[in-house]
Amino acid sequence: MSRHVLVTGANRGIGRSIAEGFVAAGYTVSSIHRSGELPEGVTGAIADITDTDAVNAAFDALEEQHGRVEILVANAGITRDGLLMRMTDEDFADVLETNLTGTFRCVRRASQSMIRQRFGRIVLVGSVVGLLGNPGQVNYSSSKAALMGMARSITRELGARGITANVIAPGFIATDMTAELGEDTVKQYEGSIPAKRFGAPEDVAAAALYLASDAAGYVSGAVIPVDGGLGMGH
Fold it and tell me: Does residue 1 register a pLDDT over 60?
């Protein structure tokens, strides 16, 4: 029986590509998502990760179908961009509630299953802006930077139980969101990337597949940049 992977937000973008990568590799894949269609081969449960009861119920339903979650890829997140002086309390709080606290809810529930079986892989999808910062994204970069502390604390707390926790920090990735950027903006961003191009969602999926594998059993508390050299690991 293949391992059960749960990818949050697998209905679009990077999360969708990660889920497709795990399906192609032969894993049993499920997702918690709010809307949209999932890739073929992925079982879904509709839930908002800002709701603890909904998260727990979704995990229960998916584990009843596929067995305990052994690998969690916490990908779901939102943006509410705006300059610091104009950012509202709600814009700041909403992003942290989803990207940080919502991730915590999923990790907490997944860890219950992982502790029982003394095996687990927790992969948190962060961002290069959590390392470098970005104008207009004080809320988003704060939420992504916090994931590093989360992964490292989980590593120290649960590492002896066969559970790893790591962060992937994607840079500029070609998705529907970046497709809306103007040509001049794209060229400006590409000029700042040593690889001189945007990455593909499959690049992030490849990192997730590695961190979930047996080959990464001794990798924990790490931040893996997938950014074409933009952040240089800082």
Answer: no
